[in-house]
Amino acid sequence: MKLLNVLVLILLTAILATSSYAGSSCDPCTKEVVLLDQQSKKLLNIGLNSMRWLLGSSPDDYLLHASLVEGNQLGAIEALEKNGYARLELVDKLPGGTRDTFLRIIPTAKGQDIINTLTK
After folding, report:
1. Which of 65, 93, 95, 118 is the most exposed place for a label (fewest CB within 10 A)?
2. How far is the C-alpha of 8 from the C-alpha of 10, rounded, in Å?
3. Closest by Cα among 35, 24, 10 to 118
4. Cα separations in angstroms, 75 against 62, 69, 94, 95
5. Helix (H, G, I), strand (E, B), or coil: what is residue 96?
């Protein structure tokens, strides 16, 4: 739980830093985001891109696998599973019958705790 509190503090700091730089040069903003990403990796073993996928995940969402590969996003998503924040499931057909390869990101209890903490 202490780790989640630290994560919330880091994300709030980033939001405040980003909003304070709104309308100005993006160089300081970029440096803050890089630092935030490094802290996320240090504390949670996942970067902000992985966190983005976790926060947007739902067992009811089916992501087109080819698009994720093309967008070079699989590494960030696989980091969630590697660190116990989500379970990944490949499916070859949507519930409505559409056939293709889809990926589901299903948050684990550990991942859901992060989601709940950040979306309160």
Report:
1. 95
2. 5
3. 10
4. 17, 9, 23, 26
5. coil
pLDDT tens-place string over residues 26-40: 677 888 899 999 999
Question: What tokens were used for 22?
Answer: 């709104």
| Residue 73 CB partners (closer than 8 Å, separation 6+) | 49, 53
Contacts of 6 (CB under 8 A, 6+ apart): 43
* AA letter at 71: G
Q: How far apart are CA 2 and CA 21, in angstroms?
A: 29
**How far apart are alpha carbons 5 and 100 in whole angstroms?**
40
Q: What is the pTM of this model?
A: 0.75
Q: Is the dihedral of CA 45, 50, 55, 58 positive or negative?
A: negative
